[in-house]
Specification:
Elements lengths: L13 H9 L9 H6 L5 H4 L1 H7 L11 H6 L5 H12 L1 H6 L8 H11 L6 H17 L6 E3 L5 E3 L10 E5 L2 E5 L12 H15 L1
Antiparallel strand pairs: 1-2, 3-4
Length: 204
């Protein structure tokens, strides 16, 4: 399942934290102490460590990864964030290629589907606000995605595609519709359920 369940209980300091991080020397380990040294001492601020792990910025031990160092280039911070968001919320982007443009209510509804109703409304609300705040800080002008090779390649997000074929038969025209659904790779069956429910609603 490519959907992080890490979230912030409040997003008010997220912009300031990221700005402080990109202006600071990269630590050997991204820890609570490092955040405190940057001036962020609340328990909510510490939750950003889990979010950074989900975004592929630091590993499980808190050691900065290559993407963290790329984010320090302030001409690319927003772009690097967008890449991390696409990976951390891959199942959401499988449902909507432009998930960054969803409204808060739309995000909540899709998260309810993806989490199969296993999260409380309070948690869903916090997951949604965290996603929305991250997206607002990211740069979506370059549709790029980070590959495991470490280089940034052109982003190709598979979404359901519908192809139509027209054939002329005899003296009249018969229209034959060939519907092909290109399903994204995911182990979360809720993604497939949501896709087919959407197809049923709009096509049948």
């Amino acid at each position: 399942m490519a959907l992080t369940t890490s979230y912030l209980t409040s997003v008010k300091n997220l912009d300031s934290i990221i700005n402080s991080v990109v202006n600071a020397k990269a630590p050997d380990r991204f820890t609570n102490k490092f955040l405190e040294d940057l001036g962020f001492k609340s328990s909510n601020d510490r939750l950003v460590i889990g979010v950074f792990k989900a975004l592929g910025l630091i590993d499980d031990s808190g050691q900065p990864l290559q993407r963290y160092y790329e984010m320090l280039d302030q001409t690319r911070t927003g772009e690097v964030l967008a890449v991390g968001i696409q990976e951390a919320y891959e199942d959401l982007f499988n449902l909507r290629k432009d998930a960054q443009n969803l409204t808060n209510d739309e995000i909540k509804n899709k998260l309810r589907t993806l989490t199969q109703g296993q999260k409380s409304d309070d948690v869903i609300s916090k997951m949604s606000s965290t996603f929305r705040a991250l997206c607002d800080l990211a740069d979506w002008s370059k549709p790029l995605q980070h590959k495991q090779t470490g280089s940034i390649q052109e982003n190709v997000v598979q979404t359901p595609k519908i192809e139509q074929e027209e054939k002329v038969s005899g003296g009249g025209m018969n229209l034959h519709y060939n519907i092909q659904v290109h399903l994204p790779e995911t182990t979360n069956m809720a993604v497939y359920d949501a896709i087919f429910q959407s197809l049923k609603k709009h096509l049948f």
